[in-house]
Amino acid sequence: MASTCEEAANSGKKEVKKETKLGLTNKKNENFGEWFSEVVVKSEMIEYYDISGCYILRPWTMSIWKKTTRDACFPLFITENMFQKEKDHIEGFAPEVAWVTKAGQSELDRPIAIRPTSETAMYPYYAKWIRSHRDLPLRLNQWCNVVRWEFSHPTPFIRSREFWWQEGHTAFATKEEADQEVLEVLELYRRLYEEYLAVPVIEGKKSELEKFAGGLYTTSVEAFIPHTGRGIQGATSHCLGQNFAKMFEINFEDKNRQKNMVWQNSWGCSTRTIGVMVMVHGDDKGLVLPPRVASLQIIVIPVVHKDDDRSAIESSCESMGRILSHAGFRTKLDTRDNYPPGWKYSHWELKGVPLRIEIGPNELADNKVMLVRRDNRAKEAVPMANLVERVKEILNDIQDSLFNAAKEKRDSCIKVVSTWDEFIAALNDKKMILAPWCDEEEVEKDVKARTKGEMGACKTLCSPLEQPQLAEGTLCFASGKPAKKWTYWGRSY
Question: Do residues 6 and 300 make contact, with C-beta atoms less than 8 angstroms apart?
Fold first, then answer.
């Protein structure tokens, strides 16, 4: 994201806007669902579309959704024949697939699937491109939109019929290489959430029941939303094994001229990351954006009243904006003269800009500026000579403070249990539950069935890669059988 200092163009019209419903009408602690829907619309992140579950992602969202990598671009459509090649894969995605059956008024000879994911679109060409061990590893990534149709209760960013994501698809000569990459990518996703979005996550392995359809095993980073007591899968890194290689005949000749099948991975994260960030950090004033991902880190606002020297104040603001932009901060100057300063404060608070700089006649006289943090609204007068250094310190502190506060709140919601009664009590208290488990699929299904209700059934979230010590003789909380691992459970999005 390039650092720029933009001056709002004066329209020449002096009238004050009549739109006054700038703030939020819902409280995060009182009505979380309505608060979330309101904040993502009023902060100009999304706009609702006229198809349920589809949303327009506005520039404030897309500015966060940026990254560079080695990219490819495969078509949106998948033939029925290719999509149905892998039995477990098609069964896993069948309820969600949207099909094109007509072109104009003409029926198609065969329906065409709109991709819910791209394995079956890409792998016929992996079989064409990979011939020798010299062609490996093959690592491709694409940024694209996908469609998954069959669900109820759509939520912007979290659960939508069409969403944007990056999906990586890789092929290796050995399982060891594939296993290593699974964990490397998972660590990248942990860093994305924790170091950039300031959201704490748990790295873990999915159960057989929850793994990617057609894959060998799935790992994930799991976040938790304390206000709703629900876990949320943040990103996934799958080892596909050789299952797709077998179906699509992706073979290579090794160094000994022996024919082998490749080992494959796929991994991805979506615009869900932005929704998680909003849910974790947002407050009753609107968005709270971590500085590292905020498209705009600093808003400079001239505080001009009737008898003040507008020209001198705005000139000082322009100077500060240039200094901050040249120092590498993403900065904007708001000189609109048809809005009062208080309205501008609320506007940029709603949009979550991490730091506000105010310059009025008092600051101008003292050769200082007023810094106002978005996360805790703390104010600090800073000499202009020390501005760049202090801004850097404050933005770093905001980033750290957001993560530490989110982690403290998340950790307070984790409950370790050992019995069914403790499990149910923690579930009803909207906790993220860590429990010893026998790792049996039928037991997991039984837990889902026994906890099904208006709030949704409880399921495994992940088994943490860093396992707490499991004492000898520990029993599964649900079945009473010998426990094999510690696993996180909870309701989820």
Answer: no
- As a whole number of angstroms, the distance between CA 177 and CA 92 comes to 27
Strand positions, DSSP E, 33-83 = 46-48, 55-57, 77-79
Name which of 225, 309, 240 is nearest 92 in CA terms. 240
Task: Report whether 436 contacts 477 (CB < 8 A).
Answer: yes
pTM: 0.87
Kindly state the tokens that stand for 403. Answer: 């993560």
More confident residue, 93 or 228: 228
Query: Any idea which residue has 């095993």 for tokens?
Result: 217
Upstream peptide bond of 137 is cis (omega within 30 degrees of 0)? yes
Instruction: Classify strands 55-57 and 46-48 as parallel, antiparallel or unpaired.
Output: antiparallel
Question: Using CA atoms, how far apart are residues 139 and 166, in angstroms rounded to an integer?
Answer: 13
Which tens digit of pLDDT belongs to each residue from 75-126?
888 888 888 776 676 777 788 889 999 989 999 888 988 998 888 888 988 9
Q: Is 454 exposed, middle or buried, given 0-12, 13-18 or 19+ CB atoms closer than 10 A? A: exposed
Find where tokens 């309701």 sit: 491
Q: Distance from first CA to last CA of the chain, Å, rounded?
A: 31
Residue 288's contacts (CB-CB under 8 Å, 6 or more residues apart) are 281, 282, 352, 374, 375, 402
Please, which residues have CB within 8 angstroms of residue 441's CB and are 6 or more apart in sequence?
207, 208, 209
